[in-house]
Design goal:
With 247 residues, this protein is an alpha/beta fold. The protein has eleven helices and ten strands. The protein has a six-stranded mixed sheet, sandwiched between helices. The chain has a four-stranded mixed sheet with strand order 4-6-8-9. The chain is globular, with a radius of gyration of 19 Å.
């Protein structure tokens, strides 16, 4: 389900009978929404959520993987697209994570979870090697030790363990969860979009070694020479909330 309220877009997984497993239809739909979002300058933040309070996402559909309707590359191309989104992304995790569902969440910039969730990626228990780009994402974002616990050891991890290893930033009780996620999205949407996008690209690409110092300097310069910088400084001087235009 896609929705937009102001500068905040939301993609909500809505197939609870299959634990939000993602088949060809779901993968194509998410890809289409992500591509459309990139074209809309009015959208500054994306929230990935679920209508299912039991399982947030069970990853790729095992049935469609067995039938050959999808491949692991189909799933990876979608998570790659999510990870490369120019705007900041929040994963609102209100249920358990299994398999590729964990990487779906990890592909977002921020992860806020409800209490008592669990996560397990059982690739090694099934005799599978997790896709290479997915392994790269675990190592880049969580480090070698956490990646080994999740992928090699196939540990079943509790909410407190996920918080400790940095997989999630916050854990909230269910009755406060939606309010916290919405406020976090609002706060992000009110920041200078050029600065947010530039620093997101620099952080992500530097960590993977895909960005030179020259490219980083160019991104920073475009941001620092913008009208938003003048607005931010003026607003601070005038003790008011800045109104950023994104140029």
């Amino acid at each position: 389900i896609f929705s937009q309220e102001g500068a905040i877009a939301t993609i909500s997984l809505n197939n609870p009978t299959k634990h939000n497993a993602l088949g060809s239809k779901e993968l194509l739909t998410i890809r289409r929404h992500l591509i459309d979002i990139e074209k809309k300058t009015s959208i500054r933040v994306l929230v990935l959520s679920s209508t299912n309070n039991t399982t947030f996402c069970a990853g790729a559909s095992l049935e469609e993987l067995r039938n050959g309707d999808i491949t692991s590359n189909d799933f990876q191309s979608m998570t790659d697209l999510l990870a490369e989104a120019k705007i900041p992304t929040i994963c609102a995790i209100n249920g358990n994570l299994f398999g590729g569902g964990a990487e779906l969440a990890l592909s977002c910039d921020f992860r806020i979870a409800t209490s008592n969730i669990k996560m397990r990626v059982p690739a090694s228990a099934l005799g599978l090697c997790y896709p290479i780009s997915g392994i790269d994402r675990y190592v880049e974002r969580l480090g070698h030790n956490a990646a080994k616990r999740i992928l090699l050891a196939a540990e079943s991890l509790s909410d407190s363990q996920l918080l400790e290893m940095g997989f999630v930033e916050r854990i909230e009780d269910l009755d406060e969860f939606e309010t916290v996620v919405n406020q976090y999205a609002i706060n992000l949407s009110e920041l200078a979009p050029l600065a947010v996008r530039a620093m997101k690209q620099i952080i992500n690409k530097k960590s993977s070694g895909k960005l030179s110092n020259e490219e980083a300097e160019k991104l920073a310069a475009e941001c620092n020479e913008s009208q938003d910088v003048k607005e931010g400084i003026t607003a601070q001087k005038e003790k008011r909330v800045p109104v950023f235009k994104g140029f």
